[in-house]
Automatic annotation (TrEMBL):
Classification via Pfam families: Peptidase_M20
Cofactor(s) recorded in Swiss-Prot or TrEMBL: Mn(2+)
Record's subunit section: Homodimer.
Alphabetized NCBIfam families for the sequence: hydantase (TIGR01879)
SUPFAM superfamilies linked to this entry: Bacterial exopeptidase dimerisation domain, Zn-dependent exopeptidases
Species in which this protein is naturally found: Sediminicoccus rosea
Coiled-coil regions listed in the entry: none
Entry protein name: Zn-dependent hydrolase
Length: 420
């Protein structure tokens, strides 16, 4: 077993991951593809060199365990995913896995073991850009992935099914079809996922890391239609118009008013109309618009807020039909529940930060993470964000190693307290 300085190990691993998956101007690590495979190999080789026990489950989850004093106890787990978006940054997901190994290196350098096992996870297929299904790897490990997904979900670049890509990588899609699980919630003491922040909050606050309060639930309608009637812009009076743009504009205005009220009440909400367009083959400056295609993405830590948004959408649709003669069809939607972090783990992270003299804040995660799968299965879970310049899902991610080191100190103190 080779001793490693934690930060030297982290820097070397980040360099190796970048080199192995370089796809200018960033990196690409496709889910169940070559880049992800290379990343898993790099991480496993490092873990084995450090003396960790390594195994891979039937869906490709890499489990790396540093034995504790009492091996009969459920382990504490940490880690994240190792896939990355096309031409993305090097730290999204990978920072959480590397931090787990850096934590073991720190314990080894101090000649200490925890009271129980510490298991670091390298999770597969978290990024939805490759397959249109969220949290594939963690949900598959818990037996949560619907059995049809291996044969219906196709990867965006290849067109092949998840089952085909899993088989190519040496894993077992039948494990998912059968609804089997490799992770038992009863055998996990706690899970903490370190991850770069994917927005500007920590940069704006000038803080190295943050404790996550929860992962926002999502209400998403990707294909919405407003259908009215095309007509002449000059010849048709207001009372005779069925203006699809005005109907969707009213929806947007009502949603923003709700957003204002929610924020005044110190509740959580973000909403996005990411697409809003009239069909190019029909629209013209002299036409009353008869059709609009749009999308809705609404997120909140509170189920009650998502309920309020759904009620507003129904009310606006009824009003648009009655007053404007416009039909609002929100299409097929998806709703994911919020995942709230465990209060005791959050307290352990706060106490660790205070003891280390590291300033932190608490914040909501607007993006989804594998940690949500652990929460769904009842595992006490928490997340630790690391400051990251320039956002995420782009080649300009710029996490500083000093911030990584600060977050590592916070994680280390919390893990030791939790393990005890």
């Amino acid at each position: 077993m080779t001793q490693h300085a934690p930060m030297a190990l982290a820097a070397a691993l980040f360099d190796a991951l970048r080199e192995a998956s370089l796809d200018p101007p960033g990196v690409s690590r496709a889910s169940y593809g070559a880049g992800e495979r290379a990343a898993h190999a790099i991480i496993r080789n490092a873990a084995e060199a450090m003396g960790l026990e390594c195994r891979v489950d039937p869906v490709g989850t890499l489990l790396m365990t540093w034995p504790g004093a009492d091996r009969s106890l459920p382990p504490v787990m940490t880690g994240s995913h190792l896939d990355a978006v096309s031409h993305g940054g090097n730290f999204d997901g990978a920072a959480g896995v590397v931090m787990g190994l850096a934590l073991v290196a720190r314990l080894q350098a101090e000649g200490r073991r925890l009271p129980r096992d510490l298991t670091i996870l390298g999770i597969r297929a978290e990024e939805m850009c490759w397959f249109p299904v969220n949290y594939i790897g963690s949900r598959a490990a818990f037996g949560l992935l619907p059995p049809h997904v291996p044969d219906t979900a196709r990867r965006s670049d290849s067109g092949k099914t998840l089952a085909e890509h899993m088989a190519e990588e040496g894993f077992d899609p039948q494990f998912v079809r059968d609804g089997r699980a490799s992770l038992d919630p009863a055998r996990i003491h706690a899970f903490i996922e370190p991850h770069i922040e994917q927005g500007p909050v920590l940069v704006g606050a000038d803080l190295p890391c943050a404790i996550v309060t929860g992962i926002r639930g999502i209400l998403r309608h990707p294909i919405c239609h407003a259908t009215g009637a095309w007509n002449h812009a000059g010849a048709v009076p207001r009372g005779f118009r069925q203006d699809a743009v005005l109907a969707v504009t009213e929806l947007a205005t009502r949603l923003e008013s709700l957003w204002d009220r929610v924020e005044r009440e110190s509740q959580d909400l973000v909403l996005t109309i990411g697409e809003f367009w009239t069909p190019a083959e029909m629209h013209a400056p002299t036409k009353v618009p008869g059709a609009v295609r749009f999308s809705l993405d609404i997120r909140s830590e509170q189920d009650s807020v998502l309920d309020a948004v759904e009620a507003l959408m129904r009310d606006v649709a009824a009003g648009a039909k009655a007053r404007r003669g416009v039909t609002l069809d929100y299409g097929e939607g998806m709703r994911a529940d919020p995942a709230l972090m465990d209060p005791r783990l959050r307290a352990a992270l706060r106490a660790s930060a205070a003891a280390a003299g590291i300033p932190v804040m608490e914040m909501t995660s607007g993006a989804g993470h594998d940690c949500a799968s652990f929460v769904l299965k009842g595992v006490p879970s928490a997340m630790l964000f690391i400051r990251n310049q320039n956002g995420s899902h782009n080649p300009h991610e710029a996490m500083e190693l000093d911030d990584f080191a600060a977050a590592l100190s916070v994680l280390a103190g919390a893990i030791e307290a939790i393990a005890a």
